[in-house]
Design goal:
This protein is mainly alpha-helical and 423 residues long. It has 14 helices and 7 strands. The protein is globular, with a radius of gyration of 30 Å.
Length: 423
């Protein structure tokens, strides 16, 4: 306002709870005693701005003592009856007051984008799962046959647990690379064996995408709102821009929530089915009961697990799963943003098809760069090869050394990075 700010001008902060389009802190102004508002009753005329949106409210009494609110005004000047109070032209006013029946188009647009992203992500997740689920099956088999798994099994045997001869035979048969594991799997089950445990993963795709997208975006919005409000307190009215660390943390939050709610039980069931198929295909003389269990479906696996370990048994390995997906999703979103920033000059813009596809491939690699060693530990815990991720690491370090342990935790990395880029 074009008003000479005097020492007796008082400011107080308040929350604009009634304005859904902008909930940031604003300034409510009470003018000195020598100034009067439009009704000459010492009430508050307010003026606030968030740097881009400007809003003015003038309260004027009518004959029946009701109040009328004038807002969202595009005028060259607005004055109250006091000559001291004068408001200049508001060029960037884009607000719409809820009290006037206005609707925030940006909110509608955001919700439409969110819905489209969830639908598109669900469809792409289903399609990529149909094409690349065999990569997950082969990777899980290789992880179960890794030296880390052998060390964990030895630790179980040494602590009084019964070592599984079937698991040993499986490790010997699957100790080669991706090609040899693929040949062995097809020879002992055909192409169908490559899709072992597909049903729970396929059914959970929509939930995966909805959870990660919703939590990630809600966390980002809350962080931007809070940081922007804090900046306003020191007189900085620019909207806060997320840093790479912020993007990583928001992505990690989405991955952690998704893993705790959905990924842990879904991948437990999948991995149990894969490990049973591996044992039956590498061992002679299994009983008919074991053969029946290995060929049963998702619900039978769930039923037997709940009966033996309770409902919490489905969340076996949840801790390392949450850690894997929090770090992995954080790396995913950071690499995606880095790709769009640095590849935009190559493909023309951040929104071009080439930029988005190449950034998506980098994002997939970013996920597995963080997640691969934790994924190996998760597989060992969920399949029963180790009691805990910590025990698996300690036993492997004692037996193989730290460097070999790190290398062995990336067993099957070719399949992980191969499915990460296109999916």
């Amino acid at each position: 306002p074009r008003y000479n700010m005097q020492s007796d001008l008082v400011y107080r902060r308040r929350r604009l709870v009634e304005n859904t389009f902008d909930s940031y802190d604003a300034l409510s102004t009470r003018y000195p005693q020598n100034c009067r508002n439009a009704t000459n009753d010492k009430a508050i005329d307010e003026y606030w701005t968030n740097g881009m949106t400007t809003h003015l409210s003038v309260y004027k009494s009518t004959s029946n003592d009701s109040a009328a609110v004038l807002s969202n005004l595009h005028v060259s000047s607005i004055s109250t009856q006091s000559p001291h109070l004068h408001f200049s032209e508001m060029k960037h006013s884009t607000s719409k007051m809820k009290s006037l029946g206005g609707r925030d188009n940006s909110q509608c647009s955001e919700s439409n984008v969110a819905l489209k992203s969830i639908i598109a992500g669900s469809v792409s997740g289903i399609v990529s799962t149909l094409f690349f689920h065999p990569f997950d099956v082969l990777r899980t088999k290789m992880q179960g046959a890794s030296p880390v798994a052998a060390s964990a099994s030895a630790a179980l045997s040494g602590s009084g647990s019964t070592a599984s001869g079937n698991a040993t035979a499986a490790r010997v048969a699957l100790s080669g690379g991706p090609v040899s594991v693929f040949v062995h799997t097809v020879q002992n089950g055909g192409i169908r064996a490559l899709y072992t445990g597909l049903q729970p993963v396929l059914a959970a795709q929509a939930g995966y995408k909805a959870t990660v997208f919703a939590v990630n975006n809600l966390t980002k919005k809350s962080l931007v709102d809070w940081k922007t409000a804090e900046r306003r307190k020191v007189g900085l009215f620019q909207t806060y821009n997320l840093t790479r660390v912020d993007i990583f943390c928001c992505g990690a939050m989405g991955g952690a929530v998704n893993a705790a709610l959905l990924v842990a039980p879904v991948e437990y069931v999948r991995n149990r089915q894969i490990v049973h198929h591996t044992r039956i295909s590498t061992t002679k003389g299994l009983s008919s009961e074991s053969l029946t269990f290995a060929t049963r479906g998702v619900f039978d696996t769930i039923k037997r697990t709940v009966k033996k370990r309770g409902l919490s048994g489905l969340w076996r390995g949840a801790g390392v799963t949450v850690l894997r997906d929090s770090l992995g999703c954080g790396g995913f979103f950071v690499m995606y943003e880095l790709g769009r920033d640095h590849l935009a000059p190559v493909f023309g813009s951040r929104e071009s098809t080439g930029t988005v596809m190449a950034s998506g491939a980098l994002a997939g690699w970013g996920y597995w760069a963080f997640a691969m060693p934790l994924d190996t530990l998760k597989t060992l815990v969920q399949t029963g090869a180790a009691r805990s991720a910590r025990e698996a690491v300690v036993s492997s370090v004692e037996r193989e050394g730290a460097l070999l342990t790190v290398r062995n935790l990336f067993h099957g990395w070719q399949l992980a990075f191969g499915r990460g880029a296109p999916a």
